[in-house]
# Entry
Amino acid sequence: MLPLLTSDWDEIKDKAPDVAFVVVVLLLAFVVFRMVFPRVARSAMMRGGHPPDDEMAKRADTIIGVVDRTAVIAVMVIGAVTIMQEVGVDITAIVTGLGITGLALALGAQALVRDAINGIFLLAEDQYRRGDV
# Structure
């Protein structure tokens, strides 16, 4: 049985400040990322010898959207695992499962990894952007 289910509620109440601290830190990191990254990425992409145009703005929006969604998923997974650990759930199996899943994706699904890398290169080479059909 999970330690969370066998613990006293008083012990769980004592851990509430730790969980709240984790949530606040993750939210703060996420908000700072959302405020800083689009500006930095857009200015880095728009920098160049020619004036920025609508096509460059679409390219920047596409790449910023992909990185933003990836960051949301990463923050959610890290937050969930950290909160589970703070509450008292043994996360050893979860972390091991995530590691094995990563290894399986790297070795067993090489075509999937290759397609993901090719997709990143397609975006970087400006072959597709937001709004294209």
Summary: The chain has a mean pLDDT of 79. DSSP finds six helices and no strands in the chain. The longest helix spans residues 54-87. The CA atoms of residues 15 and 87 lie 6 Å apart.
